[in-house]
Design goal:
This protein is of the alpha+beta class. The protein has helices spanning 6-18, 38-42, 46-51, 64-77, 90-97, 100-106, 115-128, 146-160, 173-177, 215-223, and strands at 31-32, 135-139, 165-172, 183-192, 197-201, 211-214, 239-244. It is 39% helix and 16% strand. A 7-stranded antiparallel beta sheet has the order 1-6-5-4-3-7-2, with helices on both faces.
Protein backbone atom coordinates (compact mmCIF):
# COMPACT_ATOMS: atom_id res chain seq x y z
CA UNK A 1 0.00 0.00 0.00
CA UNK A 2 0.96 3.62 -0.19
CA UNK A 3 3.14 4.40 2.81
CA UNK A 4 1.72 7.87 3.38
CA UNK A 5 3.06 7.73 6.92
CA UNK A 6 6.67 8.03 5.74
CA UNK A 7 6.83 11.67 6.78
CA UNK A 8 5.42 10.75 10.17
CA UNK A 9 8.07 8.08 10.58
CA UNK A 10 10.79 10.57 9.76
CA UNK A 11 9.30 13.13 12.13
CA UNK A 12 9.04 10.56 14.89
CA UNK A 13 12.66 9.54 14.33
CA UNK A 14 13.70 13.17 14.61
CA UNK A 15 11.78 13.62 17.84
CA UNK A 16 13.28 10.43 19.21
CA UNK A 17 16.75 11.70 18.35
CA UNK A 18 16.04 14.98 20.11
CA UNK A 19 15.00 13.06 23.24
CA UNK A 20 17.99 10.72 22.84
CA UNK A 21 15.66 7.72 22.85
CA UNK A 22 16.05 6.07 19.41
CA UNK A 23 13.14 3.94 18.27
CA UNK A 24 13.81 0.25 17.56
CA UNK A 25 13.41 -1.03 14.01
CA UNK A 26 10.75 -3.52 15.15
CA UNK A 27 8.30 -3.35 18.03
CA UNK A 28 7.87 -6.04 20.69
CA UNK A 29 5.57 -8.17 18.50
CA UNK A 30 8.00 -8.74 15.64
CA UNK A 31 11.30 -10.62 15.57
CA UNK A 32 13.58 -10.37 12.57
CA UNK A 33 14.46 -13.57 10.72
CA UNK A 34 18.09 -12.48 10.94
CA UNK A 35 17.82 -12.75 14.73
CA UNK A 36 15.84 -15.98 14.87
CA UNK A 37 16.03 -18.55 12.07
CA UNK A 38 16.21 -21.78 14.04
CA UNK A 39 12.83 -23.00 12.76
CA UNK A 40 13.99 -22.88 9.15
CA UNK A 41 17.09 -24.88 10.01
CA UNK A 42 15.19 -27.54 11.95
CA UNK A 43 11.97 -27.92 9.94
CA UNK A 44 11.14 -28.58 6.27
CA UNK A 45 9.33 -25.20 5.95
CA UNK A 46 8.24 -25.94 2.34
CA UNK A 47 6.51 -22.61 1.78
CA UNK A 48 9.57 -20.64 2.77
CA UNK A 49 11.84 -22.41 0.30
CA UNK A 50 9.27 -22.32 -2.49
CA UNK A 51 8.23 -18.67 -2.22
CA UNK A 52 10.91 -16.68 -0.40
CA UNK A 53 13.29 -16.66 -3.42
CA UNK A 54 10.57 -14.90 -5.44
CA UNK A 55 9.66 -12.23 -2.87
CA UNK A 56 11.03 -8.97 -4.25
CA UNK A 57 10.71 -5.34 -3.11
CA UNK A 58 7.45 -3.71 -4.16
CA UNK A 59 8.24 -1.57 -7.19
CA UNK A 60 6.31 1.45 -5.87
CA UNK A 61 5.20 2.44 -2.38
CA UNK A 62 1.65 1.45 -3.37
CA UNK A 63 2.43 -1.88 -5.04
CA UNK A 64 2.52 -4.33 -2.13
CA UNK A 65 -0.40 -6.28 -3.60
CA UNK A 66 1.36 -6.61 -6.95
CA UNK A 67 4.61 -7.68 -5.30
CA UNK A 68 2.88 -10.27 -3.10
CA UNK A 69 0.78 -11.74 -5.91
CA UNK A 70 3.81 -11.85 -8.21
CA UNK A 71 5.76 -13.80 -5.58
CA UNK A 72 2.83 -16.18 -5.17
CA UNK A 73 2.48 -16.77 -8.91
CA UNK A 74 6.21 -17.30 -9.38
CA UNK A 75 6.40 -19.69 -6.44
CA UNK A 76 3.47 -21.74 -7.70
CA UNK A 77 4.90 -21.89 -11.22
CA UNK A 78 8.49 -22.48 -10.13
CA UNK A 79 11.66 -21.36 -11.85
CA UNK A 80 11.22 -21.34 -15.65
CA UNK A 81 12.84 -24.34 -17.31
CA UNK A 82 14.50 -22.51 -20.19
CA UNK A 83 17.21 -19.87 -20.15
CA UNK A 84 15.20 -17.65 -22.50
CA UNK A 85 12.22 -17.55 -20.13
CA UNK A 86 12.29 -14.66 -17.63
CA UNK A 87 11.06 -14.82 -14.07
CA UNK A 88 7.79 -12.89 -13.93
CA UNK A 89 8.32 -9.32 -12.75
CA UNK A 90 5.76 -7.11 -11.05
CA UNK A 91 5.52 -4.90 -14.11
CA UNK A 92 5.25 -8.01 -16.28
CA UNK A 93 2.39 -9.34 -14.17
CA UNK A 94 0.48 -6.06 -14.43
CA UNK A 95 0.96 -6.10 -18.19
CA UNK A 96 -0.19 -9.72 -18.44
CA UNK A 97 -3.29 -9.08 -16.35
CA UNK A 98 -4.07 -5.88 -18.26
CA UNK A 99 -6.26 -4.37 -15.54
CA UNK A 100 -5.97 -0.57 -15.65
CA UNK A 101 -7.50 -0.21 -12.20
CA UNK A 102 -4.91 -2.45 -10.53
CA UNK A 103 -2.14 -0.61 -12.35
CA UNK A 104 -3.52 2.76 -11.23
CA UNK A 105 -4.01 1.72 -7.61
CA UNK A 106 -0.45 0.35 -7.52
CA UNK A 107 1.29 3.25 -9.25
CA UNK A 108 3.39 5.64 -7.18
CA UNK A 109 0.91 7.70 -5.18
CA UNK A 110 -1.91 5.21 -5.79
CA UNK A 111 -4.47 4.36 -3.13
CA UNK A 112 -3.63 0.66 -2.83
CA UNK A 113 -6.20 -2.12 -2.92
CA UNK A 114 -9.08 -3.25 -0.75
CA UNK A 115 -9.29 -6.82 0.47
CA UNK A 116 -11.96 -7.60 -2.13
CA UNK A 117 -9.71 -6.19 -4.84
CA UNK A 118 -6.83 -8.35 -3.63
CA UNK A 119 -9.09 -11.37 -4.10
CA UNK A 120 -10.17 -10.13 -7.55
CA UNK A 121 -6.68 -9.30 -8.82
CA UNK A 122 -5.22 -12.55 -7.46
CA UNK A 123 -7.74 -14.55 -9.50
CA UNK A 124 -7.02 -12.43 -12.58
CA UNK A 125 -3.29 -13.05 -12.14
CA UNK A 126 -3.83 -16.82 -12.07
CA UNK A 127 -5.76 -16.70 -15.33
CA UNK A 128 -3.17 -14.46 -16.98
CA UNK A 129 -0.18 -16.63 -16.07
CA UNK A 130 -1.31 -20.09 -17.06
CA UNK A 131 -2.59 -21.06 -13.62
CA UNK A 132 -6.25 -21.13 -14.61
CA UNK A 133 -6.68 -24.52 -12.93
CA UNK A 134 -5.57 -23.08 -9.58
CA UNK A 135 -8.22 -22.32 -7.00
CA UNK A 136 -8.41 -19.76 -4.24
CA UNK A 137 -10.45 -18.91 -1.20
CA UNK A 138 -10.32 -16.39 1.63
CA UNK A 139 -10.50 -16.11 5.39
CA UNK A 140 -11.70 -12.74 6.61
CA UNK A 141 -12.10 -12.70 10.39
CA UNK A 142 -14.75 -10.51 11.96
CA UNK A 143 -13.64 -10.72 15.59
CA UNK A 144 -10.79 -11.80 17.85
CA UNK A 145 -12.71 -14.68 19.38
CA UNK A 146 -11.20 -18.02 20.27
CA UNK A 147 -12.99 -19.46 17.25
CA UNK A 148 -11.40 -16.96 14.86
CA UNK A 149 -7.95 -17.66 16.29
CA UNK A 150 -8.52 -21.41 16.05
CA UNK A 151 -9.54 -21.05 12.40
CA UNK A 152 -6.44 -18.97 11.66
CA UNK A 153 -4.18 -21.51 13.32
CA UNK A 154 -5.82 -24.36 11.41
CA UNK A 155 -5.30 -22.56 8.09
CA UNK A 156 -1.69 -21.76 8.93
CA UNK A 157 -1.02 -25.37 9.95
CA UNK A 158 -2.50 -26.75 6.74
CA UNK A 159 -0.65 -24.17 4.66
CA UNK A 160 2.63 -25.10 6.32
CA UNK A 161 2.29 -28.76 5.33
CA UNK A 162 3.31 -28.31 1.69
CA UNK A 163 4.19 -25.80 -1.00
CA UNK A 164 1.12 -26.71 -3.03
CA UNK A 165 -0.58 -23.56 -1.78
CA UNK A 166 0.36 -20.06 -0.71
CA UNK A 167 -1.26 -17.58 1.66
CA UNK A 168 -1.27 -13.80 1.22
CA UNK A 169 -2.05 -11.69 4.26
CA UNK A 170 -3.81 -8.31 4.17
CA UNK A 171 -3.11 -6.64 7.52
CA UNK A 172 -2.35 -3.42 9.36
CA UNK A 173 1.43 -3.48 9.24
CA UNK A 174 1.92 -1.22 12.26
CA UNK A 175 0.10 -3.58 14.62
CA UNK A 176 2.92 -6.05 13.95
CA UNK A 177 5.96 -3.81 13.47
CA UNK A 178 5.03 -0.99 15.86
CA UNK A 179 5.79 1.56 13.16
CA UNK A 180 2.89 3.05 11.22
CA UNK A 181 -0.87 2.69 11.00
CA UNK A 182 -1.61 1.46 7.50
CA UNK A 183 -2.84 -1.47 5.39
CA UNK A 184 -0.38 -3.79 3.71
CA UNK A 185 -0.12 -7.08 1.80
CA UNK A 186 2.63 -9.67 2.26
CA UNK A 187 3.30 -13.39 1.82
CA UNK A 188 3.12 -15.93 4.64
CA UNK A 189 6.45 -17.75 4.66
CA UNK A 190 6.06 -20.25 7.49
CA UNK A 191 4.11 -21.15 10.60
CA UNK A 192 5.94 -22.39 13.67
CA UNK A 193 3.09 -24.15 15.47
CA UNK A 194 5.25 -24.97 18.49
CA UNK A 195 5.77 -21.28 19.22
CA UNK A 196 2.49 -20.21 17.56
CA UNK A 197 4.17 -17.62 15.36
CA UNK A 198 3.99 -16.66 11.69
CA UNK A 199 6.81 -15.67 9.36
CA UNK A 200 5.87 -12.66 7.24
CA UNK A 201 7.84 -12.38 3.98
CA UNK A 202 7.96 -8.64 3.50
CA UNK A 203 7.75 -6.92 0.13
CA UNK A 204 8.24 -3.60 1.96
CA UNK A 205 11.97 -4.18 1.77
CA UNK A 206 13.01 -0.55 1.99
CA UNK A 207 12.09 -0.83 5.66
CA UNK A 208 12.01 -4.49 6.66
CA UNK A 209 13.31 -8.02 6.22
CA UNK A 210 11.17 -11.09 7.03
CA UNK A 211 9.96 -11.21 10.63
CA UNK A 212 8.09 -13.50 12.99
CA UNK A 213 4.94 -12.41 14.80
CA UNK A 214 2.58 -14.34 17.11
CA UNK A 215 -0.59 -15.66 15.47
CA UNK A 216 -2.84 -13.64 17.84
CA UNK A 217 -1.00 -10.46 16.85
CA UNK A 218 -1.46 -11.23 13.16
CA UNK A 219 -5.18 -11.75 13.81
CA UNK A 220 -5.33 -8.36 15.54
CA UNK A 221 -3.52 -6.80 12.59
CA UNK A 222 -6.07 -8.24 10.16
CA UNK A 223 -8.90 -6.82 12.28
CA UNK A 224 -7.55 -3.28 12.72
CA UNK A 225 -9.64 -0.95 10.49
CA UNK A 226 -7.75 1.39 8.18
CA UNK A 227 -7.80 4.99 9.38
CA UNK A 228 -9.32 7.93 7.52
CA UNK A 229 -5.79 9.02 6.56
CA UNK A 230 -5.96 6.42 3.78
CA UNK A 231 -8.92 7.91 1.93
CA UNK A 232 -10.94 5.28 0.07
CA UNK A 233 -9.45 2.48 2.19
CA UNK A 234 -10.89 3.95 5.40
CA UNK A 235 -12.45 1.23 7.56
CA UNK A 236 -10.94 -1.60 5.51
CA UNK A 237 -10.00 -4.74 7.41
CA UNK A 238 -7.98 -7.69 6.22
CA UNK A 239 -7.60 -11.44 6.15
CA UNK A 240 -5.94 -14.21 4.18
CA UNK A 241 -6.16 -15.03 0.48
CA UNK A 242 -5.06 -18.61 -0.10
CA UNK A 243 -4.20 -20.04 -3.50
CA UNK A 244 -3.73 -23.72 -4.40
CA UNK A 245 -1.67 -24.79 -7.39
Amino acid sequence: MLRIACACVIAAAGAAHADETPLPKLGPDAVSLTDDNAYLRQSPAPDYWAFAPFVKPQFTTSACSVAAVTAAVNGLRGLPALAEEPVMSQEGLLEAVGDAQWASLSAEGGDGVTFAQLEQFSRAALLATGLESARSDSFRPTDDSAGSLATLRAILTENEASADDVALVYFNQGVVTGDWDGPHVAVIGAYDAGLDRVLVLEVDQEWYVPYWTPAPVLLAAMLRPTSDAHGPLEGETGGLVRIWR
